[in-house]
Every structure is written in structure tokens, then in C-alpha cells.
Write a structure and sequence with these properties.
Distance between the termini: 38 Å
Largest sheet: 12 strands, antiparallel
Order of helices and strands: EEEEEEEEEEEEH
CATH architecture: Beta Barrel
CATH superfamily: LURP1-related
Amino acid sequence: MKNYYMKQKVFSFRDRYKVFDQEQNVIFHCEGKLFSLARKMKFIETSTDTVLFNFRRKVLSFLAKYYLSDPEGKEVAVIKRQFSILKPKVEIESSLGNISLEGDYFAHNFTLFEDGVELANVQKKWISWGDSYVITIQDEARAPYLLAVIILIDSIFHEKTNQNRH
């Protein structure tokens, strides 16, 4: 089990995230493409500047739908916002295992599960400049994948705000 810290950049024309380790070193970052209709982003290992995952949004979709692919373009996961009146729902289908979410997505306090086993827990830090999160991941080997999924979940729930900002 390991803690990570994620911060979304405020006042940016494109999506930008940084993921820090416990010593506050940036270990991953994610940058969106400027003025991209498909909201393309890259998830990058900072120390080697290696792209680990690519994200893109399905352009003509009533509810947000994102594709997560490896650097060669092979689809790894599809993350879809589901229609719900009372509380937002997200569906995650993946070749690495299907993930379910439980918790309060609007408050950004939720847990990711796979077959009933906790994978990660996300807690929003309320007193911070911009959106900041404490993320606890159970299996460190899956950390890059899970962090990429968490960024996409955050992106889905911020879509309306980001569209109004641009």
C-alpha cells in the first residue's frame, strides 16, 4: 500500500495533472492537447518522459466516454459516465480487470474495487489551491494504470466546468 498525491493545475487552457510521491517528487504527469475536440491527453512517467497511456474522449457522445490506450494504441480501458438521476455513475471496462466505484463522486471521495477487493481510495483535500487528492493504492505494481483511471474519472466529472472555462 502506498500513498500518492494528485494536483490538477488551475487556470490552464488544457487539462494538466501532476502526481507526487510521499516525498513530494513529481513521478507522473498528464497533459491535455490544446484545443482538442477529443480532449486527448497523455499520461507520462516524469523521470523518463515516457508516455504510459493515452486518453481520448469519444467526440459525439451524449454522456462522457473515454478510451485509455497503451503507447502503441491498444485499447486498455473504456470509462463511461452512466445516466443517473440521483447520483453520478461511472462504468469502467478494461482488459486489466473491470473496476467498480463506491462513494461520493461529487465530493471526490470514492473507492475503486475489482471483484469486491479494494484497489484504491481517493480523498479530496478541501483546503488547497485547485483540486488536490490523496490517493491510496493497494498494489503498487498497478499504480500507473489506476492513477490514469482516476485522472479520467476526475476529468469526466469536471467536463462541464472545463467546457465553460474554454
